[in-house]
Design a protein that fits this description.
The complex is a heterodimer of chains A (about 120) and B (about 110). Chain A is mainly beta and about 120 residues long. Helix content of chain A is about 0%, strand content about 50%. Chain A is built from no helices and eleven strands. Chain B is mostly beta strands and about 110 residues long. Chain B contains no helices and eleven strands. At the A-B interface, strand 4, strand 5 and strand 10 of A face strand 4, strand 5, strand 9 and strand 10 of B.
């Protein structure tokens, strides 16, 4: 199957700093990627849809100035948590699909665990 | 908004026992997918169901899509310790491209 890689796996930062998380499709081109947030023992909450070459589409309640998404190429999307605070600590995970209509199997990255001190 | 609920939230079974998780949507779905997430891992795709009343099997796993396309189930026969993890359904609503993940069912299998 297709491979999606996320980096870093773990990151610890001080309150007020910004953190960038990368999501790469290693063996396919992904015009669209999805970013999720997952709290411990809870479901995946869709944060935004990342579109190559255009602005991301954010879900209701997700601050776009707080969670900056850039999809600069067909294989890379980045999520930057700006001015991070302890409440931003979470597991962030991306996914991509091969299906042209975006309705096929989702391939997930390994996830990035963010801890803000 | 659209919500996909799963029951039970947790399930502990003895190895060899069967397990079922149920997924329910308040409105009709276009299709539904099932994923498994091992502790500390990321979700891995299991199956996609599209047709009303569809039933698919993968070895010990049986997936079902309701006639009204509002509910689905995953049944595992004779659980093994390797079945441990959280099972999520993800529903796709007509006219959208975003999958809404269910609340998940966490399965523990006792040896």
């Amino acid at each position: 199957g297709a491979v999606v890689s996320q980096h870093p796996s773990w990151v610890i930062c001080k309150s007020g700093t910004s953190v960038k998380i990368e999501c790469r499709s290693l063996d396919f081109q992904a015009t669209t990627m999805f970013w999720y947030r997952q709290f411990p023992k809870q479901s995946l909450m869709l944060m935004a849809t990342s579109n190559e070459g255009s602005k991301a589409t954010y879900e209701q309640g997700v601050e776009k100035d707080k969670f900056l998404i850039n999809h600069a190429s067909l294989t890379l999307s980045t999520l930057t948590v700006t001015s991070a605070h302890p409440e931003d600590s979470s597991f962030y995970i991306c996914s991509a699909t091969l299906a042209a209509g975006l309705t096929g199997e989702l391939f997930f990255g390994e996830g990035s665990r963010l801890t803000v001190l | 908004g659209q919500q996909v609920m799963q029951i039970p939230q947790y399930q502990h079974v003895q190895e060899g026992e069967d397990f079922t998780t149920y997924c329910n949507s308040s409105t009709t779905l276009s299709n539904i997918q099932w994923y498994k997430q091992r502790p500390g891992g990321h979700p891995v795709f299991l199956i996609q169901l599209v047709k009303s009343g569809e039933v698919k099997k993968q070895k010990r796993l049986t997936f079902q899509f309701g006639e009204a396309k509002k509910n689905s189930s995953l049944h595992i026969t004779a659980t093994q310790t390797t079945d441990v993890g959280t099972y999520f359904c993800a529903g796709l609503y007509a006219g959208t491209y975003k999958y809404i993940f269910g609340t998940g069912t966490r399965l523990k299998v006792l040896a």
